[in-house]
Amino acid sequence: MTKWIRIGFAGPGAVIVALVVMAGMALWLPRGAAGIDNLVLPLILVPLIWAALFFHACLDRRIGRVALIAISLFAVHATLIAAKFIDRPAVAVEPRS
């Protein structure tokens, strides 16, 4: 059973968490001089984030620590993304006459 949980965190889990972290990084990274550094840097770092999560899931002896780190990264960045979408102001619509 532990083997399949580890495979889940190392395979599809690492990919999903890396993509969510990439999307969340754009919200907390500062903008650069051109205004696009917070968008480009996460795209470049996705393979590194995936590799770190993959090797951590494969090499750590304690599966609980793997789960804690992956789930907390996912939860923090998913919360940032959800807060960004919820924080949209309502669009004012002019009444038709």
From TrEMBL:
Superkingdom of the source species: Bacteria
Keywords assigned: Membrane, Transmembrane, Transmembrane helix
Entry annotated with the keyword Transmembrane helix: yes
Transmembrane stretches, start-end: 7-28, 40-59, 66-86
Keyword Transmembrane helix in annotation: yes
Protein name: Uncharacterized protein
Lineage: Bacteria, Pseudomonadati, Pseudomonadota, Alphaproteobacteria, Sphingomonadales
